[in-house]
Amino acid sequence: MTTQQGLRARKKQQTREQISHRATELFLERGFDKVTIADVAAAADVAKMTVTNYFPRKEDLALDLGEVFAEQLAAVVRGRAPGESALAALRGAYLAAVAAQDPVIGFSGAPFAKMITDSPALTARLREFHEDREAALARALAEATGAAPDDITPRVAAAQLAGVHRVLFDEILRRTLDGESGDEIATTLGVYTRIAFGALEPGLGDYAVR
């Protein structure tokens, strides 16, 4: 990449972050459904078309980590260590994310959590991200195991593994709305993570070992 290309890429990233930041401020202040794309463009000092070029769907302005979220589990499986199963890799990565109180797994704070749950559009978009994440995980598991196209096993395993992540995400969201602090939630989720993944150990403990 040339210096000029690098500068352009950084500029685009800065513009994207500026738009997302201003949009989040407006959504938290007024509520997601009461803010328009025009409002976001004015706040970010860009054209309306610029906003839609970076974020084709309004929901993605609020859930701007959606792509990271959707690919997160697949990336963990692809990066698992030699001798490590998919379940072990995902459990380890999730425990690390809990310890870091990572926003991608749900540690978003009460105002953001309320913004999501108060908006049917955001709730629906989040559901789509969960579904996309499960599908991406199924593809990664199929690649990891060399499964045939008609082998249902990767999809069954992905449904179970992604399902555990979804239950834990919802638990973080619920506890956040109930007023628990990040530290309190992290302590509880550390226990819940071991219980949830432990329930899958009999069936998936030796699956997709690298």
TrEMBL record:
Pfam families: TetR_C_14, TetR_N. InterPro entries: Homeodomain-like_sf, HTH-type_TetR-like_transc_reg, HTH_TetR, MftR_C. The keyword Secreted does not apply. Transmembrane segments: none annotated. Keywords: DNA-binding, Transcription, Transcription regulation. Residues 13-73 form the HTH tetR-type domain. PROSITE patterns: HTH_TETR_2 (PS50977). Residues 36-55 bind DNA. Signal peptide: none annotated. It comes from the Bacteria. The keyword Transcription regulation applies. This is TetR family transcriptional regulator.
